[in-house]
Amino acid sequence: MKTLIALALVSLVSVVSQAADQFPKGPDANLTPGALCTRPTSHRYPEGINYCERNVDSGTKKDVFREYDKIGYRTLQMDRQKFKIDHYIPLCMGGANSEDNLWPQHVSVYTITDPLEPVLCEKMAQGKLLQKDAIAMIKYGKAHLDQVPAIIAKAQAL
After folding, report:
1. Which residues lie closer than 8 Å to 44 by C-beta, 6 or more apart?
2. pTM of the prediction?
């Protein structure tokens, strides 16, 4: 009986583990190292950072999903409505529309990280946060989802 229970637990853990690995919890450093806007449509904030308008076509989005699935994820087998293509370095921080700044972000991740972006960009607009520091904070938050509330609080205190 103990062996049967142990086998059932191992199977359950395996199923949960596989489900958890179907989509990335954060950008892959090799596929999505992050990139800054090099062809700006304008400049923003006291720092004058390059700003690129949102411009990611559906073909590029499909390519991003395919590239992530090549490294073991199963995003293309999942409900597309549960994902968005995220700019690792957000456009408001001077991020680019290029594939090396894009990744398939699941709803369970972006519901955590999305509230951080406007807070950091507002602090940049107020001249209270430099681009390099905002980028470091957003990257850290996307890699440490449990720390996002603390990062938001730190940014709001600036």
Report:
1. 51, 92, 94, 124, 125
2. 0.85
